[in-house]
């Protein structure tokens, strides 16, 4: 069976999980000058040998086997570059606020995973400003490819008959065997910072503002004091933004300023800021800022516990559903819109194998009955905030071989992905000759045909 590598769930997952590891290679693509470093050119885009080898190594590490694996990966990369090229022609654009939101989320996640901004900079031997710029380019490319795929596949759906047909095409000896799986929900409440901590942050920033008004350099003080991991190393400069692309409090304060003027201290969801307007250009404006976040050493855990206890009591009395409570009260943006249900990255279902669960969740639900809700538990968010959460064990499925009765949701998702993959592959076959593609001699034997 031919592997549709370019649009398989594996490679989509690979792009998401490994984007930080490979974005530096992509950033270097524009600087490549030696022809033997370039595997292929697709319109105005290039594919580096290092990019191909990186994805090949990851595919092998994931257990993918094929005598033509490199060629299949190359076809995948060519398809993605063709999507990018056609996106430019068809004016398919990812909005800046979407890129910025994704960029901020990824950076916060990477900093939290590695331990600190300084450790991240040391790992890549680059300042945060360069890491941000490189990641931005990679994310913009990735999000553009995804948007083009959505444009091509449209609002596809699968009928129960199509799901049945897809399942019937799977050889019986190839049906996957699922280990014990669970559906787990959470409602997270971030512990609120006390008044004393907020006042201390405000006073620190007021002191920095006085130094700026007395003549000290804003950018130098931003590099020294700002707690914004993205802009601090750049002297606080954010670059040009349009209206409604920044949080309302920040934008309102910035637009009241004249170029070179410094704002009073303002508060937003991120902390306390002072802002300097650098330039206005039509509907866009460029600012720099210094961000100070209140210390979180003394948050009101007791109040947060009481809030979650009250929510839990309402759910257990059937006064409120867990999904509605998560939507109305949870502070976790990743799950509140999904009825509070936790999912694995890029997974189409809410079912999670128990061996994939975070240990802090596994050891709690291991003693719970299906349908029960835990008491409030200590929790720390990905960006390091102190919080509490309650966990809900919605279901628990014993080990079994895949079947339509127990696994319809997963099989339907796979059938839909297969349908979309075929639509995108058909699009590629029709459009691959509309853009100039040049492959180096080493890979001339790789066919772009499906």
TrEMBL record:
Signal sequence bounds: 1-29
Domain PpiC: 179-279, 282-392
Molecular function GO terms recorded: peptidyl-prolyl cis-trans isomerase activity
PROSITE patterns in UniProt: PPIC_PPIASE_1, PPIC_PPIASE_2
Source organism of this protein record: Rufibacter tibetensis
Keywords, ordered alphabetically: Isomerase, Rotamase, Signal
PANTHER family (alphabetical): CHAPERONE SURA (PTHR47637:SF1)
Entry keyword Transferase: no
Name of the protein this chain belongs to: Peptidylprolyl isomerase
